[in-house]
Write a structure and sequence with these properties.
The protein is of the alpha/beta class. It has 19 helices and 27 strands. The radius of gyration is 28 Å and the shape is globular.
Length: 710
């Protein structure tokens, strides 16, 4: 059967799909389970607690905000699984509440006591000694008090503006006359949430013993104990924490924009005034204060979260910075492959042979050095690069600026619409423009998510092109914790494709075909359908069919339908999906040949690798794209082939096979939508994909791990 939209329509019905937002919550549940993992060191548990809350904040700012906007607009369209916006919201909140109880119980009943066991104490202010209190009060006077701004709320002063994710106090103050008023004080986010007491109280070790307890206090507790200083002559009767989450999804009318950079800057300013989608209050807050907040924030009871614990626990990540190696997983440092130690310039290395990098196990330094050498090399004529998320202190941008200053042709596509990186990207775009770099912001209606660099170099015989392609961003910090694949190549057809994609991005082009690359929104979905169809044909001709897809999210209904058809035709399908998966596996008559696993571990599994068995002539592609409608239709993405047989063997045996055999961090997706830990049998060897990758990494060539049946 030809895999067309019409022929696959029989699979596209609500009963055949998971809800994308409920699936995302199951991903965050895996993060929660890592926080609860008894085998994980204490500070790593705290890291996962922080990640859980940070993920949830973003989920409310984007996904919940969108659903609530649909409800306000009285949208009745249903999601892929047949739920109305109201039904989705109800199920989401029902799923989240038990998770919040579980993680707060973990924090209070396990993490806090274990911190104390390890001589780290998060104290109540009243628990401190007189000397410690005095020192902290002096710190408050000098460092905190000048920053605080008490804001009154009365007929002459309107309800104060409250910023997104800011922690605040709702305060009841009383005048000597007995008259009571409401006030708000923001807890400053420029100071750490947890104040380390021994950094404030300069006490000497007793008898030379420095093995003392590390004490912290919440900055909110310090402020609360000194509130009367903010209201001279009045009494602060009651004070309770609250925290709001706003809709931060930018809505940009690109077709009406004369200057996209200016429009995005204006939208960023407006983002802070987005509607409130969540109000978190501490459990002890009295009803009249809750009513005041609900009324003036213009929300309903449905937007209220009553929290039995500290609000905004994403801030506890600062504890992970404690230099206590015994409370963390063993340290790991990426290595630079031996090939880069040879005394040749990077271009001659690439010209001789393609080079594959697997971050974070392989160092990201060669990528930065590639740009640096290109900026310094007098024979380099031009550098072209896409930048999506580059970080705050990017050496790569510095090298691009230096290249422009050396009069090289430098063209950079800076994606201004990279969510939550807009301000940073605007800054870098302006810095690049100041240096004379030709900066473009992408195509109308499309985000540029492709990760690629092109260097054009004049050589003895001709002008030669060199390319770096990647599944991840040009970000030196995230490259230490995200697993991604990068490829250096001088393959003439790939280089020609990349050149034409840059022309597509910077000029005008209606190009519909490329030599070796798949490009969204041009031909990416169609190429996936064609190769899935090839596996089906091979099975029907008596051969074997096998697909292994490793990605972050699987949502696209048409490609899911194609996988259902492939499963029903006898094609074996293994999916390694880190986050959202709308495909339902292991259903009779639909997906019994499909297995889905997910790995949440020390590193973020970010690479996208697509394997097609092709009757033994295996094909492997790496990509910047997940299988989502937005990646296939509304973004510029690239998928690039891996030709080198050693690289194919490495990706198949070391990455895909060890992921599928992982019985330590892998979880298997059930047809119910829940995940089940893939536990080893009693006598079975424990396999941890990321541990194997770290153990494999050593100075020298990559070691191919033994391949098992997949």
């Amino acid at each position: 059967m030809k895999l067309t939209k019409e022929n696959l329509q029989k699979y596209i019905k609500p009963v055949n799909f998971f809800n994308r937002d409920l699936s995302w919550l199951e991903f965050n549940r895996k993060v929660l389970e890592e926080a609860l993992n008894p085998e994980l060191p204490l500070l790593d548990k705290i890291k996962f607690i922080s990640i859980f809350f940070s993920n949830l904040d973003e989920f409310y700012m984007i996904r919940i905000a969108g659903i609530k906007e649909q409800i306000r607009a009285k949208v009745i369209d249903t999601s892929i699984d047949g739920l109305t916006p109201t039904e989705q919201l109800r199920k989401i909140e029902k799923t989240i509440q038990p998770m919040l109880k579980q993680i707060y119980d973990c924090w209070q009943k396990e993490i806090i006591p274990k911190l104390r066991e390890n001589k780290i104490s998060i104290c109540e202010f009243d628990e401190l000694s007189k000397e410690e209190k005095n020192a902290l009060n002096q710190y408050f006077l000098k460092e905190v008090y000048p920053i605080l701004t008490p804001l009154a709320f009365d007929p002459g002063r309107p309800f104060p503006y409250i910023s997104n994710l800011s922690l605040s106090f709702a305060i009841l103050v009383k005048k000597p006359t007995g008259e009571k008023h409401f006030a708000r004080v923001k807890v400053p986010n420029i100071l750490p949430r947890l104040i380390r007491v021994d950094n404030i109280v300069k006490t000497k070790p007793i008898n030379g013993n420095s093995n003392s307890i590390i004490k912290y206090v919440w900055i909110g507790d310090l402020i609360k104990s000194n509130l009367n200083m903010l209201f001279p002559g009045l009494e602060a009767v009651e004070a309770y924490h609250f925290r709001i989450t706003r809709d931060t999804d930018l809505e940009i009318q690109e077709d009406e924009a004369d200057d996209l950079l200016q429009v995005i800057e204006e939208n960023i300013k407006q983002r802070k005034f987005g509607s409130v989608v969540r109000l978190e209050v501490e459990k002890q807050m009295p009803e009249y204060m809750i009513e005041t907040l609900i009324e003036n924030l213009e929300i309903t009871r449905d937007d209220l979260h009553v929290i039995d614990g500290n609000l905004g626990l994403s801030d506890v990540l600062l504890l992970y910075d404690l230099p206590l190696g015994n409370l963390k997983e063993k340290p790991f440092h990426a290595v630079t492959p031996e090939i880069f130690e040879e005394e040749e310039n990077i271009f001659s290395l690439i010209r001789r042979k393609d080079i594959l990098l697997h971050h974070p196990y392989d160092s990201f330094n060669p990528v930065a050095e590639f740009i640096k050498e290109a900026s310094l090399d007098p024979d380099v004529l031009a550098i072209k690069q896409t930048l999506y998320r580059v970080g705050t202190n990017s050496p790569i941008v510095k090298y691009l600026i230096e290249a422009a200053e050396r009069k090289k042709q430098v063209a950079v596509l800076v994606e201004l619409k990279a969510r939550f990186d807009e301000e940073n990207n605007i800054y870098w775009a302006r810095e690049l423009e100041k240096a004379g770099v030709h900066v473009v912001y992408g195509l109308l209606g499309l985000k540029t998510h492709a990760k690629m660099t092109l260097v054009v170099r004049k050589e003895l015989d001709s002008v030669k092109r060199y390319v770096h392609l990647s599944t991840g961003n040009y970000n030196t910090e995230s490259a230490k914790i995200y697993s991604d694949i990068g490829l250096f190549t001088a393959d003439e057809e790939i280089c020609a494709d990349v050149s034409e994609i840059f022309n597509y991005l910077t000029g005008y082009s209606e190009q519909k075909s490329f030599r070796k690359l798949w490009v969204s929104p041009v031909n990416q979905r169609q190429r996936f359908l064609e190769l899935i169809e090839r596996e089906i044909k091979n099975v029907k001709a008596g051969g074997k069919g096998h697909l292994i897809f490793k990605l972050n999210a699987l949502i696209d209904p048409l490609l899911i339908a194609a996988m259902y058809e492939a499963s029903n035709s006898g094609v074996k399908i293994d999916l390694i999906v880190r986050g959202i998966c709308c495909l339902i596996p292991q259903l009779s008559g639909l997906s019994e040949n499909i297995r889905v696993i997910s790995i949440v571990g020390r590193f973020l599994e970010h690479n996208r690798i697509y394997y097609f068995y092709n009757n033994g002539s295996e094909e492997i592609y790496c990509s910047s794209a997940d299988l989502m409608q937005r990646n296939l239709e509304r973004r510029v993405e690239i998928t690039f082939p891996i030709f080198d047989k050693d690289f194919k063997k490495y990706l198949t045996d070391n990455v895909l096979t060890t992921c599928l055999n992982d019985n330590t961090k892998a979880r298997v997706l059930l047809s119910s939508g829940k995940y089940e830990l893939n536990k080893p049998d009693i006598n079975e060897e424990r396999i941890n994909h990321q541990e194997l990758m770290m153990n494999r990494t050593s100075p020298g060539i990559k070691k191919i791990l033994p391949r098992e049946t997949i």
